[in-house]
Amino acid sequence: MRDVCVIGLGLIGGSVLRAAAAAGRRVWGATTAEADAEAAVVEGFDASTDVAAALRTAAERDALVVLAVPLTAIEEVLRTVGECAPSCLLTDVTSVKTGVLTAARAFAPNARFVGGHPMAGTAESGWRAGGATLFDGAAWVVCVEDDTDLAAWAEVARLALDVGAHVVPLTASTHDEAVARISHLPHLLAAVLAAVGADGGPVAMALAAGSYTDGTRVAATRPELVRAMTEGNREALLPVLDEALGRLGAMRGSLASTGGLAVSINSGHEGARALAEARQATPSGVRVTLSAPDARDGLRALGERGGRITSLTADTAIGEVR
Amino acid sequence: MRDVCVIGLGLIGGSVLRAAAAAGRRVWGATTAEADAEAAVVEGFDASTDVAAALRTAAERDALVVLAVPLTAIEEVLRTVGECAPSCLLTDVTSVKTGVLTAARAFAPNARFVGGHPMAGTAESGWRAGGATLFDGAAWVVCVEDDTDLAAWAEVARLALDVGAHVVPLTASTHDEAVARISHLPHLLAAVLAAVGADGGPVAMALAAGSYTDGTRVAATRPELVRAMTEGNREALLPVLDEALGRLGAMRGSLASTGGLAVSINSGHEGARALAEARQATPSGVRVTLSAPDARDGLRALGERGGRITSLTADTAIGEVR
């Protein structure tokens, strides 16, 4: 099993370090956040605040380097990768994929880069918020572009499977469009709801119950993390935000004119049912041969149909589609 | 303890019937939904589908009548109250208070009516979804208008306390404005999110994680219930919906122009903190003497400061404000 070097030891990076170690891999990490490095060392991990040294070790050992720093720090870390481990196997775990792909091509052009994004997290952050089981059963997007090296792709996919996730192969842009809908828009709507609710003062806070606490939960996330993901996905997020504005505006219009909200509320109910059905459907098996000439298309088609890969042999990705 | 007659035996009405019985009251109920009436009888309750007969019994016994029918059926039931129990002690549990107050004055003008609204519920509905503990620790708004009979008010408040809730005294219009923010807007935003998410197809559904499932949970509520509460609170909901549209539009504008979302996201984060602080604050005790000339003002002031009443003696409401 390939060694793993994790840069950034917050919620996600710290969880990758622990889960990869639990899967039997040799692991080490580095972070500029002293508190996280110290906490990792206290738990017996090889961790430091010397990012360059950790990357040089990765280059020596031909390790898989996982960038788990906030999106806003990606460029700087990629420059260090370009200097200290220029041709390493490289992935990341940030929530926007096209921007990171562009930055990797610019600042670490010789790295064997494959973008990734585990769909897991909590409103908490930092090493202490993480754990070895954070990724159990989670979707982990591992990007497939037209020029993706499938050997490198399989290395990243194998790490995701090793830590308990299932793999969803998608292009960076398909990923960004989907997460704008199901991750970035939820954060913006939660922020709107939390602000409008708080404007109602103590009465509103005293009456707030389940629909409000559920709807505002992610508004408690650290603002800089929410800003990084939403601002970093601007291009994909703008049309999705327009769609949401259009739907909310249509509600406003029909409430003010006819007073009827049937169409809007039924659409939302159908949307909720679509999620429930996607989760309850019986899966059927799918295999993609990685050495086949159209393997990239096969992987992406699987991901685009809502499928996932659950295991990987030397030349075959084994998965299911619901 | 006063007898309780519950009309409507769904989630809320069925829970009131069970909880009031558990508190030692004589209870009976009626509903036009045969399945709910049968289920209540199977569990040993005095329940039927003859609403008029149940109300006539209430008139004979001078019981407190609780209307727990959907908002869209309130007028019809109020007419029956006007015929069969014209001067009864009367309350309701629907989520909009000004409309019901107007209807009660029109169709049961001699009833001693005091509006109520327990802030409890689930996405499920019907007798089987309820239970005797549904109201434990929940806020139960009991309305205080300028002409409210405080003896009748205390009877309704005592029922709310008996079933485990705490009482929030507010005018109908203050209630409606607050629930537009913390209950009706959350349902509309959940519907928008569920529709925009589902528009992303199978990929979006496969990647949906916590922020999406939390944000769309109440979109699974029966559409007719969501329509009844939102359409029924049109006057209070429209300006709240405009505030949400304004905030979402401002996000769209700043993302498109400067690309920065700091102001919007920080406002949401502060809103989330306002809720957490309201819940963690140390309460201080408050008492309102019900026979005092300004008792109505005292009760409403308590509610408007986010306070609640936790017990009631013959002439004193004892509560706390955070």
Automatic annotation (TrEMBL), chains A, B:
Domain annotation Prephenate/arogenate dehydrogenase: ranges: 2-293
Keyword entries, A-Z: Oxidoreductase
One Pfam family from the record: PDH_C
GO molecular function, one term: prephenate dehydrogenase (NAD+) activity
EC number: 1.3.1.12
PROSITE patterns per UniProt: PDH_ADH
Top-rank taxon: Bacteria
Family statement drawn from the similarity comment of this UniProt entry: Belongs to the prephenate/arogenate dehydrogenase family.
Protein name: Prephenate dehydrogenase
Organism of origin: Amycolatopsis thermophila
Lineage: Bacteria, Bacillati, Actinomycetota, Actinomycetes, Pseudonocardiales
